[in-house]
Amino acid sequence: MAFQGPKGTRDFYPEDMQVISFIFNTWKRTAWLFGFEEYEGPMFEHLDLFTKKSGEEIVKQLYNFKDKGDRDIALRPEITPTLARMIVARGSSLKKPVKWFSIPRLFRYERMQKGRLREFHQLNLDIIGEAGISADAELIAAVVFMMKSFCLASTDFKIRVNSRKLMSECLSALGFPAEKIPAAYSILDKKGKIEPEALQEMYAKDGIAGSDVQIIENLLACASLDHVRALVAAKADQVPALAEIDEFFSKISAYGLSEFVLFDIAVIRGLAYYTGIVFEVFDEQKSLRAIAGGGRYDALIEQFGGEPTPAVGFGMGDVVLYELLKEKNLIPQYRKPVDVYIINFNKDDSLPAISFASLLREKGVSCEFSLKGQNFKKQMEHAQHARMVAFVGGDEWKEGKVKIKDMGSGEEKVVEKDEAYSILAMGTHPPAP
Ligand code: HAM
C-alpha cells in the first residue's frame, strides 16, 4: 500500500523548494529593505493562547490535542498571539517601535478549497509600539514593494482597505446599538460572499432587525469614502476616524502608491482582535482567495497582560501568491543548482575528478561528478544542466591542464588548472543566505 500525505498538506520536491525559496527570498529581502528583524516561536502553543482573542473562525479551525502531560495544546494557526506573548515577556526592555518579521508554517483545519490548505507558510510583518497611521501606511508600502518584486503590477492586484474604527463610529453615529457592533462586523465581512438569504439568516440569528438592518444596508451600499462621508454628514463630529483614514490615503499618495490601494467597505477581516485600519490583498479580478490580510490591533498586547501597546501587522500566505504567480507566468524556470559538472575522460579513474572537485568546493564553486564511473556519453548527459563543464584526466591532466566548456555558448578551451579554478569560480552563484 502506498501512503499519501494528509489532506491539505504538500510535499515539496526540489523543484517546488526552489519556488518556495524564491518566494521566501523575495519576502526576506523586502523585510530587510524596510528594516524588519526576524523572529520565530514554537510550532505549538497552549490552546488558550488561540481561543482567547483570535475569534470564533480560527478556533473552529484549530488542530488541538492533549499532550502526554494532559495539557491542551494547539498547532499554531497564526503567529500573532505568539508575537504578542513574546512582546509581553520582554516588556519595556524592547526599544519601540519593534519591527519584526517571521515566516511561520501554520496549520488550520480548513474546508478544502482552491487557495486554502491545512498547512501553509505565511510571511508576517508587524510594527509594535507605533500608534500613528504612518506605521499602517509603511506596512502597505512594504506589501506593494514585495508584490512588485514578484513583477506583479497594479493591474494584477489591489490592496483593499477599511477601518474598523471608522465602521464602529459610523454605526454608532447612525444609531446602531453598540453591543451589536461585533455582529455587524461579521455581516459587513460577508458582503458579496454569501447569498441574500444567508445574509437574512445572519440578521435574524444576531437579533438585528428593522432600522438596524437598514443602517447596515446603507453602509454596505457605500462604494467610496465620499459615500461614507455623505452618509454620516449630519454627525461628522462623531466620526473622527474619517480624518484618520483620509490621512492614511494621503500618505499612500505620498508614497506614490495610489494606483495599488483602494477603500472597500466589505473588508472587515475575520479575526476578532483588529481595532483600526484593516486590509486585504486580492488579485485584480478577485477570482482567487485573499493573498494577504492584516490591520491594527491596539488592544491585543494589553489583553495578553502587557502594557497598552499599539500594534499593526499583516500575514501573506504562500499558497494564493503561488497561484497568482503561476497564472501570470512569473515563476522562474527550474534550474538544478549545481554550477560545474566534472567529467572524467577515463571512466575507471575517478581520482582526478575527486581532487578537482575538492579544490573547486574550497573556492566556493558548486560542482558534482559521476559517483559510479560512467562512460563519457552518460557523464555528458548528466552535465547538461550545468553552467560549465570541466574535463579532467588523460594527458592534459598529467600536464597540469583542464579542458573547460561553457554550456551556454558552447565555447571550449584548454587552460592551466589554476586558471581553470578562477574561470569556473567567476560566474558561480552561492544560494542567498
Ligand atoms: P489571516 O487573514 O488569517 O491573517 O491570514 C493571512 C493570509 O494567510 C491570508 O490572506 C492567506 O494568504 C493566508 N492563509 C490563511 N489561511 C490559509 C490557508 N488555510 N491556506 C493557505 N493560506 C492561508 C492572519 O493570520 C493574521 N494573524 C495576520 C496578521 C499579522 N495580522 C496582524 N499581524
Helix content: 25-40%
Question: How much of the polypeptide forms β-strand, as a percent range?
Answer: 15-25%
What would you report as the Rg, rounded to the nearest angstrom?
A: 28 Å
CATH class of the largest domain: Alpha Beta
Averaged pLDDT: 93
- Give the structural class: alpha+beta
Largest sheet: 9 strands, mixed
Tally of helical segments: 17
Number of discrete domains? 2
Q: How many β-strands, per DSSP?
A: 17
List the ions, cofactors and other small molecules found in this model: histidyl-adenosine monophosphate
CATH architecture term of the largest domain: 2-Layer Sandwich
Q: In whole angstroms, how far apart are the ends?
A: 40 Å
Q: Which geometry do the CA atoms define?
A: elongated
CATH homologous superfamily identity of the largest domain? Bira Bifunctional Protein, Domain 2
Low-pLDDT residue spans: none
CATH topology category name of the largest domain: BirA Bifunctional Protein, domain 2
Keywords: Aminoacyl-tRNA synthetase, ATP-binding, Cytoplasm, Ligase, Nucleotide-binding, Protein biosynthesis
Main location: cytoplasm
Protein name: Histidine--tRNA ligase
EC number: 6.1.1.21
What does this structure look like?
The chain is an alpha+beta fold and 433 residues long. It has two domains: 14-41 and 79-327, BirA Bifunctional Protein, domain 2; 340-425, Anticodon-binding domain (Rossmann fold, 3-Layer(aba) Sandwich). It has 17 helices and 17 strands. The strands form three sheets. Strands 1, 5, 6, 7, 8, 9, 10, 11 and 12 form a nine-stranded mixed β-sheet that branches. The chain is elongated, with a radius of gyration of 28 Å. L-histidine binds at residues 78-80, 108, 122, 126, 269, 273-274.
